[in-house]
Amino acid sequence: MISFLAAVLIVLGLFFFAGGSVGILRFPDFYSRLHPAGKLDTMGLLLSLTGIALYVVQDLTLSAILTALKIMLIVVFVFITSPTATHAILDAGVRAGLSPWTAPGKRGRT
Amino acid sequence: MRLLGFITVVLLGGLLFHLSLDFPDLGDASSPAATHVSPYYIEHTMEDTSVPNIVTAVLADYRGYDTLFETAVIFSAGLACFFLMRISERTAPKARFYRHLPTGLTLRIEKGGKIPEDTREFERIDSVWVPYDVIITMTCRLVVPFIQLFALYVIAHGHHSPGGGFQGGVIFGAAIILYAISNNLRRTLRRMSERMSALFGSVGVIIYGGTGMLCLLLGAGFLDYRGMASLLGVDPVSARSYSILIVETGVGLAVTAVMVWIYYNLSSAGKQDEGL
What we know:
The complex is a heterodimer.
Chain A: H1 2-26, H2 30-56, H3 62-95
Chain B: H1 2-20, H2 32-49, H3 54-62, H4 64-85, E1 95-100, E2 105-110, E3 122-125, H5 134-156, H6 165-182, H7 185-191, H8 194-217, H9 229-232, H10 236-267
Antiparallel strand pairs in B: 1-2, 1-3
């Protein structure tokens, strides 16, 4: 039962990863590409690593629980650092003077 | 002269390629290394050194000379970077920028002007203005201690799992470099000065070589850790295990310091004045 739940979580995580890759390929410019790269990768990692931790913790031994805890620690640190990295990259883009993409014909205030 | 150098390089390179054809094939089961050396390590590492991780035992004990000179090579890489890039004479820049911390004002002081002391009130900032980013600074402040703890774990746990001095040292150096990137070079130099990093690099190599010399003085061969048994007060097998940890600590120190030292020189083009 737990292994089935773990499989579902891992597959969901892979779905988010795939969505992130498609987004990076299809979005028009630097800023909008950072959106799938930052968000969907973090979400996919959360889901798939939670699935792996659940799979490990099936037999409730001490070493299995410790391994699952370590995996969840990876999730915590990625959750802290991945959005920060995206923020830093975006900040560098703004400081380098890259203007965001607007739909052709629909030019707002520039 | 340049032609002579070119001919030498081509001849030696050709010789190297020609002779490398005589090596045994990759994964050849009948090569001398696979018939005599590897089985010995696999069968005897535990009873010789009581280290479960064979790779660590081979790296720091059986092949101690190799690792000693690898550490020396890393240290000389740091030295080479220092000699090539460091600019010692201080030509004053056209203008310096200071931030008055209580008010947040930025001062631009031309060459020849009165320069304020770098104190609690005034802090020097880079001439290419880098805004103070709270998010990045705070996240790095949160993460850096954990990276350093993990680096110490990797160094100390090399006996049982993948890891050791080189890997742990690189992680520790990366933590300091992360601090330098998220803040700036001057703030990092205040925490770990250039003199400190040069000193730590040489101390790391001295710890390694000194352990070898200590073995020699205590009546065993150079880097034969069984000689350390009387000094550490344990039997010869555990002495080899403990000495590996001492040596790995030296390697970790050297790698950390040299990584940070090279970063200081590269990021500021040798001036160590401004930079990330």
